[in-house]
TrEMBL record:
<dbReference type="InterPro" id="IPR008974">
    <property type="entry name" value="TRAF-like"/>
</dbReference>
<dbReference type="InterPro" id="IPR002083">
    <property type="entry name" value="MATH/TRAF_dom"/>
</dbReference>
<dbReference type="Pfam" id="PF22486">
    <property type="entry name" value="MATH_2"/>
</dbReference>
<feature type="domain" description="MATH">
    <location>
        <begin position="175"/>
        <end position="302"/>
    </location>
</feature>
<protein>
    <recommendedName>
        <fullName>MATH domain-containing protein</fullName>
    </recommendedName>
</protein>
<feature type="domain" description="MATH">
    <location>
        <begin position="21"/>
        <end position="153"/>
    </location>
</feature>
Length: 311
């Protein structure tokens, strides 16, 4: 083996071997059609090595995200980290292969041990082979518009770090409104009633209405809450930063009752609102307009501004 020194900031070793990779091999026929069909990035199916699933990623004309030109870029990516839990890390040494079809041997590039984790799932070589070399038939890497490349992966260690989180604020967040018509109010005899579900910020919500109040509002006030309607979709460590307004419409003069607040919703905090939203005395007054012909109208205006998820 021969050290190539620093290769775009990556210490690599270049070697030639007659033996093919043991973990995965890819054959691409009609390689030129990748460019014709504007396929700038090709990901292989996943393969297993060292107890983990991996993919090879090929940029036939260079990784434009890194402003690579005149080179073929090849990377190894961890394919499935969903089962590893928060804070996972996998360290691996890997070799990437390209077959020289003239000499029937393999060009191998090997870097130092790399850490694969949530933020960095992909490592490899921006400048694996110059395109002028790759497309030159005398080099043997592309023959009759066909090439073969592969990988060996050796997991050296794995680690789970302490818990962490990532807060993603949503730029230009938009609100969603839902109006709920509650009829025959005087005949409501259950402790609480829920509206139909509605979407805001890609989450399902409901309005929950307590006609006789709840908690410190029991017997004296109407209680109204916003409910995160699908708790199974909220994983541990997820928090949803939400601004919402709940209104009861004044159907006579338009002087609506409204409460506005920003709250964090999570698995342990699925509902937020007001136990003393409006007094029953005022709500039932004919001139308040809140209850007209035994009907009241409740509106939720919901906007999700950010989501915190576990790393």
């Amino acid at each position: 083996m021969a050290s190539l020194g620093d290769h775009d900031g990556i210490e690599i070793i270049k070697s030639i071997s007659d033996a093919p990779p043991t973990h995965y091999m890819v054959k691409i026929e009609s390689f030129s059609l990748l460019t014709k069909h504007a396929i700038e990035r090709y990901e292989t199916e996943s393969f297993e090595a060292g107890g983990y699933k991996w993919k090879l990623v090929l940029y036939p004309n260079g990784n434009k995200i890194k402003n690579m030109k005149d080179h073929v870029s090849v990377y190894l990516a961890l394919a499935d980290s969903s089962s590893l839990g928060p804070g996972w890390e996998v360290s691996a040494v890997f070799r990437l292969y390209f077959l020289d079809q003239n000499k029937d041997n393999y060009l191998i590039l090997q870097g130092k041990e790399r850490r694969f984790h949530t933020v960095k799932r992909e490592w490899g070589f921006d400048k694996f082979i110059p395109t002028v070399t790759f497309f030159d038939a005398s080099s043997g890497y592309l023959m009759e518009d066909t090439c073969m490349f592969g990988a060996d992966v050796f997991v050296s260690k794995e680690r789970r770090s302490g818990r962490g989180e990532c807060l993603s604020m949503i730029k230009d967040a938009t609100s969603s409104k839902h109006v709920w018509k509650i009829e025959n109010f005087s005949k409501l005899d259950k402790e609480s009633y829920d509206s139909n579900t509605f979407f805001a910020g890609d989450r399902k919500w409901k309005i929950r209405f307590y006609p006789s109040g709840t908690k410190q509002g029991t017997g004296t006030h109407l209680s109204v809450y916003l409910i995160l309607a699908d708790p199974d979709s909220v994983s541990d460590g997820t928090k949803i930063f939400t601004e919402f307004t709940i209104r009861i419409f004044d159907q006579l003069q338009g002087r609506h009752i409204a409460g506005k607040v920003t709250k964090w919703f999570s698995r342990s905090s699925l509902e937020n609102g007001w136990a003393k939203y409006v007094s029953m005395v005022y709500f039932t007054q004919p001139n308040s307009g809140l209850l007209l012909k035994d009907v009241c109208l409740v509106e939720a205006d919901v906007c999700v501004h950010g989501i915190t998820s576990a790393l």
